From TrEMBL:
One of its GO terms (molecular function) is acyltransferase activity, transferring groups other than amino-acyl groups. Residues 1-133 form the N-acetyltransferase domain. This is GNAT family N-acetyltransferase. Pfam families: Acetyltransf_7. InterPro entries: Acyl_CoA_acyltransferase, GNAT_dom.
Amino acid sequence: MKDFVTSAFGWNEALQQAGFAKSLRQGTCQLITCEGDQCGFVHSDVEPDLLWLRMLCIVPEMRSKSIGSQALAKVISLCSVLEKTLYLNVLVSNRTAHDWYRRIGFVDIENDGKVSTLVLPPSSPPALMKRDV
């Protein structure tokens, strides 16, 4: 994600490490494994009235194998059980991820030119795609 962050904000290694460490202390981070190998992680945070998908990262060589779709489906299922709406932020420069979330059914609700905030409306069932980010 370094290229996307750099294009949006510039890169400051110390700031990125501090921000990442702080973010991981919030919510839950789960490793994604495939055939025993770590292939990504999901970081989410349940708040009183919503659930934030903070990060969904799949290692590049494991993309396009529906791993991200399966991980997202579990997050969406959790939202359903908890009766919470799912929100996420995506860097505008990460068009592949942004477009993937839109195809699934997420809707842009805010965009500052660098970061787009999306929501999965509870009334619209997600159309999880076979294509992965």
